[in-house]
């Protein structure tokens, strides 16, 4: 089950639900607003997100940190290429390259890449204990598919599944 149908199954009211697109990209009007705040790293990229809004604050913290790292020593360009959920965890991929005329040394580059990896890792760890739907504290749940959810959303998902099973049996 993909995230959009998981949300619908759980009957969660989401202001941007009408914009959710089922498919490889999960671009909503809300997500586009988040992306627009970081033009430097979403520059000419049409990267959507397949993760729920509960994880966006963790992502934004890492975007801010990445922008800070890039600004500190000009010469490196970075694009966010993919943001997805896998086995209940956040996975987020970046692509970096030196700009033409960059004065960065190999040592600068590896130091920056390490700092960027740390910022990404921090977001991934934070998402690991954050409800993907609402952002409240959550943990990994196996409910047919694995999701990181708070107690409330976990209960709603379970209740909805039981309701559907009852309908199948009726
Ligand atoms: Zn929740």
Q: Indicate the low-confidence ranges by residue numbers.
A: 1-25
Q: Which structural class do the helices and strands define?
A: alpha+beta
Binned, the helix content reads 40-55%
Number of helices: 5
Strand element count? 4
Bound molecules: zinc ion
Mind explaining what this structure looks like?
With 170 residues, this protein is an alpha+beta fold. It has one domain (3-128). It has helices spanning 3-9, 29-36, 56-72, 106-127, 151-169; strands spanning 76-86, 89-98, 139-142, 146-149. The strands form 2 sheets. It has a two-stranded antiparallel ribbon. A two-stranded antiparallel ribbon has the order 3-4. The longest helix is centred in the C-terminal third of the chain and has 22 residues, at 106-127. The radius of gyration is 18 Å and the shape is elongated. The protein starts with a helix and ends with a helix. Residues 1-25 have low confidence and may be disordered. Bound molecules: zinc ion. Residues 131, 133-134, 136, 149-150, 152-153 line the site of zinc ion.
């Amino acid at each position: 089950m993909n995230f959009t149908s998981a949300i619908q199954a759980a009957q969660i009211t989401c202001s941007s639900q009408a914009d959710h697109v089922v498919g490889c990209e999960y671009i909503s009007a809300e997500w586009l607003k988040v992306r627009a705040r970081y033009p430097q790293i979403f520059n000419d990229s049409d990267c959507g997100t397949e993760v729920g809004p509960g994880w966006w604050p963790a992502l934004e913290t890492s975007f801010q940190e990445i922008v800070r790292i890039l600004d500190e020593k000009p010469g490196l360009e970075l694009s966010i290429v993919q943001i997805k959920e896998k086995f209940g965890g956040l996975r987020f991929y970046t692509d970096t390259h030196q700009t033409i005329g960059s004065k960065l040394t190999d040592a600068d580059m590896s130091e920056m890449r390490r700092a960027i990896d740390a910022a990404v890792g921090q977001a991934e760890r934070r998402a690991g204990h954050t409800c993907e739907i609402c952002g409240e504290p959550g943990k990994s749940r196996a409910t047919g598919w694995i999701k990181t959810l708070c107690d409330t959303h976990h209960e709603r998902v379970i209740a909805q599944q039981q309701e559907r099973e009852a309908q199948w049996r009726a």
